[in-house]
Amino acid sequence: MTESTADQELARDLGFLEAYTIGVGTMIGAGIFVLPGIVANNAGPAGMISFIIGGVVSLLTALSLSELATGMPKAGGSYYYVNRAMGSFFGSIVGWSMWAGLMFATAFYMLGFGQYLTFFYGNIAVGWSALGMAALLIGVNYRGVKEAGALQNLIVILLIGFILVFLSFGVFNIDWGVFKPFNPNGWGAVASTAATVYVSFIGFEVIATSAEEIKNPGRNLPLSMIASVLTPMIFYVLVMLVSTGVLPVAELAGSNIPVADVASEYLGTIGALMMVVGALLATVSSANASILSAARVNFAMGRDKILTGWLNKIHDKFRTPFRAILITGAVILLLIAIGVGIETLADVASFLYLITYALVHIAVIVMRRAEPEDYNPDFKLSSWAYPTIPLLGSASCLVIVAQMRPLVLLIGGIIIAVGVLWYFGYAASRAIKPSLVGDAIAARDRTPAPNERYRIVIPVANPKTEQHLINIGGMIGGNYGEAEIVAVSVLQVPQQTSLQQSIEYEDERIQRQQELLNGARQTAEQAGLGLRTRAIVGHSISSTVLNVLKEEQAQHLILGWSGKRKRYEHILGSNIDHIVDEATCEITLVKAGQQPVKNIVVLVGTGPNTILAVKRGYDLASSADDTSLTLLMVQTPGTDGHTDPQSKGEGYIHSVAHEAGISSDQYNTEVIVSDNVRETLLEAVEDYDTVCIGATRSTAIRQALFGSIPEEIGEHTDGNLIITRSREYKPRSVTEGIIERLSR
């Protein structure tokens, strides 16, 4: 079998300097040119402390993001980390917050652009200039542009050069007497201003989204993030120092082009022009980056089914996510057109990102306590830093939020409410990310029990198939030393009937249950297998089997299947559907044929359970004499004319067998070249009495639990069918976590 896609790795070709440059390029932007006037008006010269506060909060976030990014390097940034750790409810809140935050930030940058454009055209309204440039950027992103990276690097170099010139001459023109009083409006104003300036610090996360491409990420990623926060923070503080030291606060606060007016005091018109050009470049660059980032957030949310996939459709000609860009652009234009104030735009963007980063810090704690198997960060907060930094970082974000104006809290609260309502109205029934909070509340004990026996649970219900299921269990268990089989029979009674009442009055059904288990014991004795039986009366077969799996701490579940799929409410049957969806152990689905297991074929593909299927095929073949094992693969014809599909298939089969621990003399190979994989497989399996195949889907979907091809083969073959699925990690719900915690 072949798959249309395969997991791809990204080359790690970004060192510390390259990663640092990416971060600085996003941080040295519009805020440094637009905010000094607003900050001076709110906090006076003490506004530079506001920038330090914003920088310190960002440093804490950078450390938490570094751990998450090296443990979960995937597109989506903070949204993905929170969604993975805390589930789709919080993922929806963060996704909407990031999307809206980027739109508010873009509108802020565009108003800053309009303000600085008045240096050349004083009679053009700021709002019209902002609308015109915003529309142009939306059009550019709609069409897509090439070679933007080199232009972005040039802009960053120019901006740093302009700022260094501004500072180098400015420090010699500071009137140190103006800093008395240093903090005219009190420390409360400094704290609330820190919320306003935080919009300048939201760009460092771009480094985290490049984690897969960074060399030695455990070292280079946190160092580059810290450096990319410290560098602009120092620039912001020094620019604020020069600005408030050269121009009186009242004059600075009333200026539309504050940094240009400061530069004109000691560098004349040339200095003012330099800073205006820098501001125009910075605002356009920052706005363009924000529009692109918004499209990436949309993509990540659509991938996780929190947003509709309609939004992420790619343009046939331009290959851009045009719908997401147009909707994002429409909101940006609306914010500018209705006259939202520039300070309010900055504040709301800061609010939304502070809420996002507060949840990012919590996500670190959740991932550490839940310890999912696929979370192995290259960088981990040390023992002295964890959980201090995540807790302090989350608290500091919320403290800054608490200082914000009521209007900002209202707008931000409405956006968060939209995320909540969207989750319950749309995403809850579609989103695929479970929450790990339950496992974080009651962390799992992952220490293996000493000398633990491999335990296989087999629910039995049909006397005609139980012997086959027990024998399959013995074949699999024989490769695990003294494996133990637990045969379970569940007598289901209506909810209206008490279980004790059923035991007393269901004599005939209980007798049949005992006969069924006696047959299981006899089969096990004849085969020399260790077997225990459990006769249970319950209201739900599936729930009872799942409880048995937990009580027995079973490593393996073998389920019998009739070979027929349902077309409506259930897929394989109501009991099997529920058990497969919830069970975490390895599962083998067995359809009993009319012939004994002799001629075994394993269908080899690139799915997640192929190696397991090969192991199970070998288990069956090695448990009896006169059996044969064939590994079969269907290859599509090569399109390049150079690759021989037959040789390619043979090579792949041998590599899979080697990984499964099987030598080449223990199996035969068969490679069939065909354009129609499905029909070829259905034909090929007719030559064998037993077919073994790995589930092609690792999670349940509506159309198939084990994958459409395995289940279709099960419907059509008359022989024995074995479908394997490896163990899966399924986190506890929050309620289960609380109950588990209280019971300790």
Automatic annotation (TrEMBL):
Any one annotated GO CC term: membrane
Membrane is among the record's keywords: yes
UniProt-listed PANTHER family: AMINO ACID TRANSPORTER, SOBREMESA, ISOFORM B
Alphabetically ordered keywords of this record: Membrane, Transmembrane, Transmembrane helix
Topology of this chain in the membrane: Multi-pass membrane protein
UniProt name for this protein: Amino acid permease
Compartment(s): Membrane
Keyword flag Transmembrane helix: yes
A GO molecular-function annotation: L-amino acid transmembrane transporter activity
Domain of life: Bacteria
Taxon lineage: Bacteria, Pseudomonadati, Balneolota, Balneolia, Balneolales
InterPro entries xrefs: AA/rel_permease1 (IPR002293), AminoAcid_Transporter (IPR050598), UspA (IPR006016)
Main location: membrane
Segments crossing the lipid bilayer: 20-40, 46-68, 89-113, 119-142, 154-174, 186-208, 229-250, 270-295, 322-342, 348-367, 407-426
UspA domain ranges (all copies): 455-591, 598-724
Organism from which the protein derives: Fodinibius halophilus
